[in-house]
Amino acid sequence: MADMTAIFFLLLIFLTAYPAMLAAWWLLFPNLIKRAQTRVEKSLAASFWLGLVVVIALVIPIVILMALPFGPAKFIGWILLGASLTIATVGSAGIAAHLGERMNQSGNNYPPLSAFVRGAVILELAAFFPLLGWIFVWIPFLITSFGATAFALLRWMPREKIVNKETGTQVSALKAESA
Predict the structure, then answer these.
(1) pLDDT (tens digit per residue) in 56-70
(2) How many CB atoms are closer than 10 A to CB 62?
(3) How far apart are CA 142 and CA 32, in angstroms?
(4) How many whole angstroms separate alpha carbon 51 and alpha carbon 91?
(5) For the residues 42-58, what does the mean pLDDT come to?
(6) Enclosing H/E stretch for 98
(7) Each residue of 14-28: pLDDT tens digit?
């Protein structure tokens, strides 16, 4: 019985700690998270593919370092794994901010922090769902967060779409002249 209680409270702590950690990133680094959110919003596929490249580039040295029979190399491998997952939470916060923004666009009028935390909880619970969430939510979400983090840290923003506003101005001018 004590084991079940311990597992329950550990899960409860993790379920509340993850949105809190993402909210801390969002409050501490608002511009960085906004860049990651913009990348997720405007170019989700590009974030996924860059994330896949970053994950492959990180997994190779981590696996090599952990396979070496030398203690300090394994330690450096664990440090690299922890640091890369920590930095990837920037992209996770961008995804959570995007989900919160989408909730506000759907008619809800939440304050920004409330919308962000709700987005983080939705993202966490979707990834927590057995098998489907682990395979089809958590893995693509993690890869996309690596890509969004890379884009945000490199300050690469998506291209603005060029909208031809002259046509609308000319039509309005013609209507005004004929009247």
Answers:
(1) 999 999 999 999 998
(2) 16
(3) 18
(4) 10
(5) 94
(6) helix 71-105
(7) 888 889 999 999 999
Helix axes of 44-67 and 71-105: crossing angle, nearest 10 degrees = 160
Q: How far is CA 82 from CA 7, 30, 89, 168, 172, in A?
A: 23, 23, 11, 53, 58
> What predicted TM-score, i.e. pTM, was given to this entire model?
0.80
What pLDDT does 127 receive? Answer: 85
Residue 29 has a pLDDT of 94
Cα–Cα dist 86/92, whole Å: 10
63 token code pair: 């696996």
**Cβ-based burial of 23 (10 A; exposed 0-12, middle 13-18, buried ≥19):** middle
For residue 89, give the 3-state DSSP assignment.
helix
* CA–CA separation, 13 and 7 (whole Å): 10
Q: Which amino acid is at 35?
A: R
Nearest residue to 93 via CA among 140, 56, 141, 131: 141
The values of phi and psi at residue 158, to 5°, are -65, 155
Higher-pLDDT residue of 168, 150? 150
- d(CA 150, CA 134) in angstroms, rounded, equals 23
Q: Give dist(CA 44, CA 28) in Å, integer.
A: 24
